[in-house]
């Protein structure tokens, strides 16, 4: 049994009216929004308050009619009606007080333009006008009269500076998303663009939240502690994509970036969705939620194109591309010529086509545009020519030569963008790490192989470009 059932028993003529229920919901939303927003919101133009006031009057009359009736059922219904009445009255009072407080604080601001005046009801406009007139007369009689006439206006804009105090539109607010939305928020160091789902609650500046609220994509919510809250202020300032990230150095690069840079959103790309899901689940279990998976086969033009479109649709840009995917052999290939072609296709052509596909998104980065290509000491000409070098004795031509080609390809990209200092295009050598690439024969921990990749992936506008380094320093070409 609800309130409507109780009221029907007492008054058979009473029927639930959907409009009244909607009005209460609208009043509650307006109250929450007004108390949450740092500036005055437009006065409801749908006749909401006229209907609410009429309902309050009718409820008061009903209470007066029922008062004095000693029937227990009537008395209980009276309590219910009075409770509902007090709820309406509280919401109305609190809503109006919130608006009056904003008008008192920034009266001149809300009277300064027709658009701002339109936010006020007729009574609020009359109140604000009288309030400002009284305040100005008080100041005038107190001290303004002693100033030159040109300095007696409270809305002085001399020198290009306004004396009108305005609301802080960068104040933080909570919003609840009413549909899946790509949200852009401004952080301290950079801006962030992040995809959120319906019913997610996030906190960001009102100036960023306002367009979402006005478009109907979000509302200022009554917070429930059981709901997850996402902070946009410094979240996801950088979108990073790592190929071959479901295992080895690529995975530990993703883990290190996501752990040490919570404002980075890391996309783990690879060929197999199942392997990617396992990698993301492992990171999620470690408390890292700023990661996602993306199927991307670097040997497939269709897969590359689809991946670029997916990143563009969800994030709108890319700040860093780490070309980590690579192979050293193909166990299923018995034809020696095809083996060479397979390795070259992955390690060189794949990097070229992935990079080419994501250049348009990298151009949209709001800070440094970073490309990190993962190469190997085996690709160095100097190391191969030096009889005392480790790489000199390693006789694995297909892999080594593809890495030499990758080094040259990287320098071509460096040359193409050398006139734009925002591009940071570099090579990194992870070292001889124990990974699936070398059947776990390496003597370095793959976590160490991620160190320099992460350093280059987080370079700022003053960072290096056109270099080849490992975690210890420069490499010899």
Automatic annotation (TrEMBL):
Q: Which SUPFAM superfamilies match?
A: GINS helical bundle-like, NAD(P)-binding Rossmann-fold domains
Q: Where found? A: Nucleus
In terms of one coarse class, where is the protein primarily found? Answer: nucleus
GO cellular component entries? GINS complex
Mind telling me which CDD domains this protein's record contains? Answer: GINS_A_Sld5, GINS_B_Sld5
Where the record annotates domain GINS subunit, the positions are 65-141
Q: Which domain of life is it from?
A: Eukaryota
Output the InterPro entries linked to this UniProt entry. GINS_A, GINS_bundle-like_dom_sf, GINS_Sld5, NAD(P)-bd_dom_sf, SDR_fam, SLD5_C, Sld5_GINS_A
Q: Which residues form the DNA replication complex GINS protein SLD5 C-terminal domain?
A: 167-220
Q: Which family does it belong to?
A: Belongs to the GINS4/SLD5 family.
Q: What does this protein do?
A: The GINS complex plays an essential role in the initiation of DNA replication. Has a role in chromosome segregation.
Instruction: Kindly state the subunit structure of this protein.
Output: Component of the GINS complex which is a heterotetramer of SLD5, PSF1, PSF2 and PSF3.
The protein here is known as DNA replication complex GINS protein SLD5
What is the source species?
Echria macrotheca
């Amino acid at each position: 049994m609800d309130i409507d059932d109780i009221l029907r028993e007492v008054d058979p003529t009473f029927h639930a009216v959907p409009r009244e229920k909607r009005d209460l919901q609208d009043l509650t939303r307006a109250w929450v929004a007004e108390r949450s927003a740092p500036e005055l919101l437009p006065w409801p133009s749908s006749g909401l308050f006229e209907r609410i006031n009429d309902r309050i009057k009718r409820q008061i009359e009903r209470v007066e009619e029922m008062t004095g009736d000693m029937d227990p059922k009537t008395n209980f219904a009276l309590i219910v009606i009075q409770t509902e009445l007090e709820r309406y009255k509280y919401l109305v009072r609190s809503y109006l007080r919130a608006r009056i407080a904003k008008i008192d604080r920034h009266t001149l601001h809300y009277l300064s333009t027709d658009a701002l005046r339109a936010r006020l009801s007729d009574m609020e406009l009359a109140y604000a006008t009288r309030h400002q007139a009284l305040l100005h007369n008080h100041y005038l009689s107190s001290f303004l009269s002693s100033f030159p006439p040109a300095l007696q206006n409270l809305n002085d804009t001399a020198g290009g500076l306004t004396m009108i105090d305005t609301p802080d539109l960068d104040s933080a607010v909570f919003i609840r998303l009413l549909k899946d939305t790509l949200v852009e928020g401004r952080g301290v160091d950079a801006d962030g663009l992040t995809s959120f789902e319906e019913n997610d609650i996030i906190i960001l500046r009102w100036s960023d939240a306002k367009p979402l609220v006005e478009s109907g994509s979000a509302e200022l919510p009554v917070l429930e502690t059981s709901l997850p809250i996402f902070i946009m202020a410094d979240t996801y300032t950088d979108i990073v994509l790592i190929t071959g990230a479901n295992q080895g150095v690529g995975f530990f690069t993703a883990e290190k970036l996501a752990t040490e840079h919570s404002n980075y959103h890391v996309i783990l790309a690879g060929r197999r969705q199942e392997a990617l899901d396992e990698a993301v689940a492992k990171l999620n279990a470690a408390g890292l939620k700023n990661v996602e998976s993306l199927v991307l086969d670097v040997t497939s033009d269709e897969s590359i194109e689809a991946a670029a479109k997916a990143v563009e649709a969800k994030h709108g840009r890319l700040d860093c591309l780490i070309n980590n995917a690579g192979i050293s052999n193909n166990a299923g290939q018995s034809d020696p010529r095809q083996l060479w072609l397979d390795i070259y296709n992955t390690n060189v052509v794949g990097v070229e086509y992935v990079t080419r596909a994501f250049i348009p998104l990298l151009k949209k980065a709001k800070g440094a545009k970073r490309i990190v290509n993962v190469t190997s000491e085996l690709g160095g000409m100097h190391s191969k020519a030096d009889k005392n070098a480790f790489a000199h004795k390693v006789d694995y031509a297909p892999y080594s030569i593809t890495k030499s080609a990758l080094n040259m390809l990287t320098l071509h990209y460096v040359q193409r963008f050398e006139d734009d200092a925002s591009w940071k295009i570099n090579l990194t050598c992870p070292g001889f790490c124990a990974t699936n690439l070398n059947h776990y024969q390496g003597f370095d921990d793959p976590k160490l192989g991620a160190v320099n990749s992460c350093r280059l992936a987080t370079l700022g506008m003053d960072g290096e470009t056109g270099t080849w380094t490992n975690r210890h320093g420069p490499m010899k070409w």
